[in-house]
From TrEMBL:
PROSITE patterns given in the database record: ATP_CONE
Protein name: Transcriptional repressor NrdR
Cofactor annotation remark: Binds 1 zinc ion.
GO-annotated biological processes: negative regulation of DNA-templated transcription
Family statement drawn from the similarity comment of this UniProt entry: Belongs to the NrdR family.
InterPro entries in alphabetical order: ATP-cone_dom, NrdR-like_N, RNR_NrdR-like
Limits of the ATP-cone domain: 46-136
Organism lineage string: Bacteria, Bacillati, Actinomycetota, Actinomycetes, Micrococcales
One Pfam family in the UniProt entry: Zn_ribbon_NrdR
Function of the molecule: Negatively regulates transcription of bacterial ribonucleotide reductase nrd genes and operons by binding to NrdR-boxes.
Top-rank taxon, per record: Bacteria
Length: 160
C-alpha cells in the first residue's frame, strides 16, 4: 500500500477491524518513511459480466433501479429497495464466486423480491425467467398460491 502523503511503496498495519457488517475490513496504517497514519478500507470486489461481454463492478444502485421498475405503482419504499439490494449482494458474496452474469443477478433478486411484493415479483420474473406465454404466468401464480397455502398452515374450518 503506497503512502498517500509521501508515496512510499510500503506501509505497516497498526490496527484491523471489520466494518459494514463484516463485508469489509478497515485498516489503520502507518508509513515507515514519513511516520504519518492513514486508514484504508478493503472489500472483496464483485464483478458483473454484461450481455455485451463488458465487465463492470457490481452496483447495488443498478439492482435497485432494475427492481424499482418492477415495483412501479406498488407500495414499496426506497428503504425496501435498499434492503433488497443489500440482501442480494450478501447472497452473491456468500456464494463464494466473484464474477456473475447479469442473468445470475436477476435470478438472485427473485426470492428476495417474492417476499417483498408478489406483483413486482411476477413482473420481474417474466423478464428473467423468459416467460413466453400466459401459461408461464399462470404457472408462476400457481406457485405463489401454493406457497401462500403452505404458509397459512392446515385449514381451521369447522365441519358440521
Amino acid at each position: 500500500m503506497h503512502c498517500p502523503f509521501c508515496r512510499h511503496p510500503d506501509s505497516r498495519v497498526i490496527d484491523s477491524r471489520t466494518a459494514d457488517d463484516g463485508l469489509s475490513i478497515r485498516r489503520r496504517r502507518q508509513c515507515p518513511e514519513c511516520g504519518r497514519r492513514f486508514t484504508t478500507t478493503e472489500t472483496a470486489s464483485l464483478t458483473v459480466i454484461k450481455r455485451s461481454g463488458v465487465v463492470e463492478p457490481f452496483s447495488r444502485e443498478k439492482v435497485m433501479s432494475g427492481v424499482r421498475k418492477a415495483c412501479q405503482g406498488r407500495p414499496v419504499t426506497e428503504a425496501d429497495l435498499a434492503m433488497l439490494a443489500q440482501q442480494v449482494e450478501e447472497s452473491l458474496r456468500q456464494s463464494g464466486i466473484a464474477q456473475f452474469d447479469t442473468n445470475d443477478i436477476g435470478v438472485a433478486i427473485l426470492p428476495h423480491l417474492r417476499t417483498l411484493d408478489e406483483v413486482a415479483y411476477l413482473r420481474f420474473a417474466s423478464v428473467y425467467q423468459a416467460f413466453e406465454s400466459l401459461a408461464d404466468f399462470e404457472a408462476a401464480i400457481g406457485d405463489l398460491r401454493k406457497t401462500q397455502v403452505a404458509a397459512s398452515g392446515p385449514s381451521s374450518e369447522v365441519k358440521e
